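Example 313.
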Amino acid sequence: MELRHTIKAASIRTGLSPHLIRMWEKRYCAVTPRRTASNRRIYSDEDLYKLILLRRATEAGESIGQVAGLKVEELESLLQSLDFRSATDGLDVAGTQGKSVEKIIADCLASIEELDEKRLLDILLRAASDKSRTELLNAILDPLMQQVGDRWQGGSLSVAHEHMVTAVVRSLLGSLVVTERVPQSAPILLATTPEGQNHEFGAMMAAITASAAGWRALYLGPNLPAEDIAGAVHQSGARAVALSMVYPPDDAAVGVELKKLRVLIGPDVVLIVGGRASHRYGAILEKIDAHIVNGLTDLMHFLGRVRNRAGRH
Ligand code: B12
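Predicted structure in complex with cobalamin:
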C-alpha cells in the first residue's frame, strides 16, 4: 500500500478541509495516518478512499460518529443502500431543498415545452447541486428522458424540443463527468459506446456512477471503433471498460466490433455492458466474457466488488 499523500493532497483529493480531516481523525479515529520523521501526517490511498466514502455518507445525512468506525466494505454497502433508498424514495418525498423530484421533472418538461433552454439548464444545475448523484441520474434524468421520448413519439414534442433537451442534458452530464474528484491512484474505467451505437447518455451516466464508486472514469464519447477503445485502454492502463448499447438492438456489425474489442484488449480487462439493447447481444457478450449490468445501482455494486477483489491481490 502506498503512503504518499500529505494532508493538503488528501484535502484536495477528498474534497474535505484539512481541519475536518484532522477532526474526524482525532475525535472519531476515522483514519490513522502514519507520521513522517518531522511528525507530518501521511495518508495512504486506502485512507483517502475511506475519507471519500465518509464524506459521501455524511453528505447523505449520516452522522460522522455513527459511520467513522465502519470498514471500507461496510461503508460501501451503506452507501449503496443509501443511494438505492434515495433513488427509489425520491419520487415521493420532498428533496433537501424542498422540491420533490416529481416537481423538478414537471418544471423541466414545462421549460422544454416553452423551448426555454436557459431555464432547463438552470433547473438541472440546481438539481445537480441539491441532490445526490444517484438521485439526479436515476430519479430525474432517466425518467425525464423517457418522458421526452414518449411525448416526442406521441407528437406533443417536436424533434426541435427533443434536440434542445439532448443538448442541455449532454452538457450537464459532460461537466459532471470531468469534475468528479477521485484519487489519482484509483483504478481507471473507460466509458463509451461501440461503433454503430450513438445514444451516449447511458455511457456518460456509467462514467459518473463509476466516479461515485471510487473509480477514475474517462468518458471517450460515443460510436468508437474497437481499435480506438483498445488504444485508449493500453494508453491509460484502464482496468475496466463500460459500454452502453441502446440502438440498434440487432446490428451484426456491432457484434463484430465487440469480438474484436475483446481480442484487442486481452482477457484481463473487465468488460461491462449496459443499456436497453445489451441483452439482445447476450450470446456474443457471453462469448467475450462481458458482464451485462442492468442499471446504475447494480453498476455501483459491481464496481465495488471488482475494486475490492483487485485490492486484495
Ligand atoms: C435522447 C434520444 C436520442 C438522441 C441521442 C442523443 C445522444 N447524444 O445520446 C438522438 C436525438 C440523437 C436520438 C437518435 C435516435 N434515436 Co433515440 N432516443 C432518445 C431518447 C429520447 C432518450 C434516450 C436516453 O438518453 N435516455 C436516458 C438514458 C440514461 O437512458 P438509457 O439509455 O435507457 O440508459 C439507462 C439504462 O439503460 C442504463 N444504461 C444505459 N447504458 C448503460 C451502460 C452501463 C455500463 C450500465 C451499467 C447501464 C447502462 O442506465 C441508464 C439509466 O438507468 C429515447 C427515448 C427513451 N424512452 O429512452 C430515444 C430512443 C432510444 N431512440 C430511439 C430511436 C429509434 C432513435 C433513432 C433511430 C431515431 C431516428 N428515427 O432517427 C435515432 C438513432 C440514432 C442512431 N444512429 O443510433 C428509440 C429506440 C427504439 C428501440 N428499438 O430500442 C427510443 C427508445 C425512442 C422510441 N421510443 O422509439 N435519440
